[in-house]
Amino acid sequence: MKASHTRFRRAALCIALGTCLSALAPVALAQSATGAVAGRASAGDQIQVVNATTGATRTVTAGADGSYRLGQLQVGNYSVQVLRDGAAVGEPVPVSVGLGGTTTVNLGSAGGVADMAAVTVVGDRVVNRVDVRSTETATNVTREQISRLPVDQSLASVALLAPGVVASGATFGGLTFGGASVAENAVYINGLNVTDPYRRQGFSSVPFGFYDEFQVKTGGYSAEFGRSTGGVINAVTRSGGNEFQSGVELTMEPSAWASSRNDHYHDDGTLDERDRTSRDGNSFYKANVWASGALVKDRLFFFGMYEVRDSSPKDIDETEAYLTKGDNDFWGAKLDWQINDNHLLELLAFSDKAESTTRTYDYDWASGRTGDQSGESTAGSGGDSWSVTYTGHFSDNFVAKAMYGINERSATSSSPWDADCSIVTVSGSARQDWGCHPTNSSISGRVDEREAIRLDFEWTLGDHLLRFGVDQEVMDSNSSVRYPGDGRSYQVQNVTPGASLNGTVVPPGVTRIVDARRYITGAPVTTEAQAFYLEDNWSVTPNLLLNLGVRFDKFHNKLASGATFARADFEDMVSPRVGFSWDMKGDGTTKLFANAGRYYLPLTNKLTDYFGGGTTDEHTYYVFNGWTDMIDPITGAPYRVPSLGAQIGAVNTDMNAPPPDDVRTAVARDLKQVYQDEFIVGFQQAINQAWSYGVNATYREVTRSVEDARINHVEGCDWYSGDWPIINPGESVTLWCPDTEDWVQFDSSRDGYIASFGNGAVMGYSKPKRTYKAVEFQLDRAWDDKWAVNFSYLWSKTEGNLEGPVNSDTGYADTNLVQHFDHPANNERYGVLFNDFRHQFKLRGSYRLNEMWSFGATATARSGGPITAFGVVWPDDTRSAGGPGEFSGGGSGWLCVANCNNPATRELVYSERGAFGRMPWVKDVGVNVTWTLPVEDIDLKARFSVYNLFNSQTMVNVHSRYESTPGTRMPYFGQGTAWQAPRYAQLVVTWNF
Question: Closest Cα partner for 69 from 97, 94, 92, 32?
């Protein structure tokens, strides 16, 4: 009886674990790496919270209306105690503070928990089923949940648990949130933005065991968050406490546990462009060791991890084999200095540097034999990142927080031949035994660094929680491309004696020359982004919360020369945010909420680099004096290089281009930034202490684009005869006119393009638009130490005339440079877009059989995306609207059906977006079983997971190019270009002590 009473008392105590397992409950604090405890008690009572891990203590006095709040708390477990006249009242209430959320604890006059109907008892914990203090939509996932489910060890896999998040079928990968493209998301670790600043399509990461909790935000962000029109992955890492803990973890994914990829063939029986895949594979192993504890009890804590990884991917084609070896280590550390109960200093540092070497060998498919090595390359990525965060509680009502951090990323490639082997080619001839460089490719590299600083404040004034702050990010990208060897490429060319060459004539008797080209491009570019925000969370009544906020952004993109490429000031990027949450019954069981807001997406460094880097492109010509025999410094094989005779003329520097300092003809003076307006309304209800459900509807709209557009006509300025400046297509544009030495303004929805046939019609570009409409339903059964389940269904429709800053249809990944507006035909079609996945089902569940065995499963199914045809011409215009290349942008909706060689008489038919049907449904099932050693005080587990259990290798993308020239059908239109990954298995063994 006593044990039962204690169990119930402890469960009743921890009433507000608002974010622990409730996948339905939205959360509150945007990109914050902390949480809060709030609620009601007797007026004048003191509410004390104590961190169960570190002993840190905070106290606040309930106001005249009984309300209280303690913000900026580290994620973790706490106890809440009522103090009256300095004496404890009732028992401490154990609570859990989740990432970005507010844990609601309403306390009665006796110090116990009130509103028991609003919570679910889970063993010795209580979960808030409905978070009535939030106006956002997000999903929180804890380490505890992940341990029960077959979720692969990546941030992307965690994000895919949330409704509306889909793995894009684009050939360049990525995640799509709410119909947005893969280049519109952001990722934060402990409040530090670790998103790729160059293309905004990747992010830094740390080992799965280094994380503590994850937050996947899909809409309704508060005003402190910006620079994203897709979604956000927000994560925090583990910290140490007073108790020393440590552990080891081993992860094994041998290739023998995976199913083979299918070889894919075109309908005519020819092999797919990706060559063979059935003999590809990857064995992956990693092991980490971690420890945490107190360096100084109650004051200074540490968490540290070191991980070693070994991966061996192999790509076996019909004639070549690519064998890769990646042997990379990770280190990470977190220090927490609790200076006193009111002041905390945190330091995070980690290194995700990685390097892999790929060796290429000759291969015979029929015999399966690997021959001589023919090449080798090394790729590098990652970097060192760190942040320091200070949190100060200066009174019951005022909290300040400051963060400074550096995030580094890199992308490099090299080979052992780079130092000694120059590029050697012979014009008009296939490769023979000249030159020793195996790929004849340039050496490229890029280093990105983000310097971030932000200040955030919370000030409670009666019924108002005022939040305000500022932040700045300086994002540097330094890229370079150069030739290997001595930095020059050597091409042997045929010439005619006496012909003109390089300002002189070819000497008599000379029929062959050598063009020695020195080419270097790339330069440092910078983006400075700043913002400040104001927000009022106003408790209009005890049951109605009103969120009023506004955010102001500015940015400045700088060229390598230091000159301005583009900029926007605070008045140009104003983002209002408003929302409400109504506790309809007043007991925390039923909530109606809504929010509306505007979100801006600034330019990437890729765009600035494309226009703003300097180029050295010099040609020196020599008489060809035959071939010189050499020995390959790596393989020892013989090869030949051209022997240089007399130089012909001076060095040709005509193609050199210093970093520009004047881009008035390349960037519109009145360039405005892309924004998205979003509206969400939702309802949530706790059915009982175990079950809850929710439904919400979302509408998103984008009506602006920043792209390079073909401008070959501007009324009043003949200089624009075929340029691609960065503008807002479909809007008013102001560019510099060198002819008149003045600015010229025109409406790009009416002017900017002149047709090359017929009457030479002058026209403009359709105004860009993308809309996303969605209705989401979720049903959740809370974990009760026995079983749990979560189900969601999402109906959505994504329409428009452009996907976003990338083009997944044709596989073009250069953000903001995807040829959407290289011809008016490219975006005249309004219809379903690539990321229109109309139906999405997600189910996950876990079951504990006994102390030794437990099981988990996930299942997803989504309808396939639309198949759209891209032609190459337009009525009354001979200029191409899109080339035959699969991975280039552009394309027309007009397809030629007759007289295609004659522009005057050819017949074109219009093809809508999605006119050729849809790809098949994509289904995935994962299962796992976990064995736990049933011995007290020994925490040893082994989890075996199988992903894509039924080995569904469904097509997820197709060839979209319909024609190569008018009327010439591309042979593989509508056939696959990307497929689901096959089934694979994973064993994770953990021992914590």
Answer: 97
DSSP 8-state code for residue 873? B
Residue 824: phi, psi to the nearest 5? -60, -20
Question: How deeply is 97 buried, as exposed, middle or buried, from its count of CB atoms within 10 A (0-12, 13-18, 19+)?
Answer: buried
Q: What confidence tens digit (pLDDT) does each residue in 792-808 have?
A: 999 999 999 999 999 99
Q: Residue with structure tokens 């971690």?
A: 290
The token duo for 935 is 């011995």
d(CA 974, CA 123): 54
Q: Residue 890: how many CB atoms within 10 A of its CB?
A: 24
680 contacts 219 by C-beta, under 8 angstroms: yes
**Average pLDDT over the chain, rounded to whole?**
90
Q: How far apart, in whole angstroms, are the C-alpha atoms of residue 175 and residue 181?
A: 8
Helix (H, G, I), strand (E, B) or coil at 66: coil
Phi-psi category of 200—alpha, beta or left, where left has phi over 0 and alpha has psi -120 to 50? left
First to last CA, the chain: 32
What is d(CA 689, CA 98) in angstroms, rounded to the nearest whole number? 19
Q: What is the phi/psi pair of residue 239, to 5°?
A: -130, 165
Mean pLDDT of all residues in 772-798: 95
Q: How far apart are CA 954 and CA 923, in angstroms?
A: 8
Report the chain's C-alpha Rg in angstroms: 31
CA dihedral angle for residue 429, residue 432, residue 437, residue 442, rounded to 10 degrees? 10
What number is the average pLDDT over the span 871-886? 84
Q: Which amino acid is it at 161?
A: L
Percent of the chain topping pLDDT 90? 71
The two tokens of residue 929 are: 């079983």
Given a cut of 60, whether residue 122 has pLDDT beyond it is no
Tokens representing 851 are 């102390």
Give the model's pLDDT for residue 2. Answer: 36
Burial class for 154, CB neighbours closer than 10 Å (0-12, 13-18, 19+):
exposed
Q: Which residue type, as a one-letter code, is found at position 198? A: Y
- The answer to whether residue 6 scores a pLDDT higher than 60 is no
Can you tell me the distance from the alpha carbon of 141 to that of 149, in angstroms, rounded to the nearest whole number? 11
Pairing of strands 544-558, 574-583: antiparallel
For residue 259, the 8-state DSSP code is P
What count of Cα atoms within 13 Å lies in the side-chain half-sphere of residue 796? Answer: 34
Q: Which residue type occupies 461?
A: L
With 90 as the cut, is the pLDDT of residue 36 above it? Answer: no
Alpha-helical runs (H) found in 351-424: none
The angle at the Cα of 422, spanning 421 to 425, to the nearest 5 degrees, equals 120
